[in-house]
From TrEMBL:
Pfam families: Acetyltransf_1
Keyword Transferase: yes
Keywords recorded for this protein, A-Z: Acyltransferase, Transferase
The name this protein goes by in its record: N-terminal acetyltransferase
């Protein structure tokens, strides 16, 4: 098992995870994933086990914040710490002081993801009405506390 930087070699596997993890309104095209993995490649990763991509995270960094654009894990690989390990690739930017906050958007109905993010120290800072293509609202969640990020990630080096 390994976390590797997202490159074009992994796009098919990332797309497979994307298709399995999100509904039709939320799936990114292969072309958009290729762009994001290239443009945000320094902060985007895949989790590989036995040559299979089980999860990925795409994180883009600007001056003082990191935006988790997308994070997903295949159903069969969930609840094994893969999502947490991937999440920590973004949280380490905060932990190291490279950014002041890490943020993301999540469907209000995605209670499993919300629980993970809250466990990691994220807080809901905004409700985004009609954010998703099917009209569902989303939450914007962020974390700014470096100590909490470090504590959450201590087991995911």
């Amino acid at each position: 098992m390994a976390i590797q930087r997202c490159t074009s070699d992994y796009l098919k596997g990332v797309y497979d995870v994307e298709l399995e993890s999100f509904n039709q309104y939320d799936v990114y095209s292969l072309e958009l994933l290729k762009f994001l993995c290239s443009f945000c490649g320094d902060y985007s990763y895949v989790f590989i086990d036995n040559n299979e991509i089980l999860g990925y995270i795409i994180t883009c960094k600007d001056d003082d914040s990191a935006h988790i654009i997308s994070i997903a894990v295949k159903r069969k690989a969930r609840r094994r710490g893969i999502g947490s390990a991937l999440l920590c690739t973004a949280l380490r930017l905060l932990e190291r002081g490279e950014v002041k906050k890490v943020y993301l958007e999540v469907r209000v109905s995605n209670s499993d993801a919300i629980r993970l993010y809250e466990k990691a120290g994220f807080k809901i800072v905004e409700t985004l009405e009609g954010y998703y293509g099917d009209g569902e609202a989303g939450y914007r969640m962020e974390i700014t506390d470096r100590k909490i990020a470090k504590e959450f990630c201590k087991n995911y080096k």
